[in-house]
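[audit] Reproducing an earlier prediction to check determinism. Same input, same settings, fresh worker. If the tokens differ from the archived copy the diff job will pick it up downstream; this log only records the rerun itself.
[audit] input (182 residues):
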Amino acid sequence: MNLVEIFDRYPSQEECIEYLEQVRWHGKPNCPYCQSVHATPLPSEKRHRCNNCNTSFSVTVGTIFHRTHLPLQKWFLAVTLILNAKKGVASRQLARDLKVNKDTAWRISMKIREAMAENEQRVLLSGLVEADETCVGGRPGKGHPGDKQPRGRGMKKVPVVGMSERAGKVKVQAVKEDHLKA
């Protein structure tokens, strides 16, 4: 995802919060303190109150976005800048891009790097990863003479993406054709 897509997809703080709630809770708020699913949304803020432990919480509790005064849009932009950089991003460059203090930019970059190194996040592939795509399905029946069977991405087969760590885990997943763009 690039910077323009971030601005288009998350134009305000509310859209960022809605996205995090959907990714983290799938529509059902879960208390990060007691793991209860009995929570009531508070009308004035984007917070919830747990009915078991009677604490109020937001979707950012327990994440790298917790206890920050920086808008989530800037956090999303920072994540995008760091992930898209081939050789990393200096904190001073990140500060210029986000229009924040250099110390704030350093803290953001360290939090993002710590999150990428967490064991919970390590279920993803790491190290040297090789990826390839293929299409799986039978050969289409022969049509009338002169009908050309489409080749490549135009055919009616299921696209499958495979990724493999060197001497490690392998992940294979069938994807929708409109999600397979590059």
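[audit] rerun output stored. Observation attached for the diff report: The chain has a mean pLDDT of 83.
[audit] end
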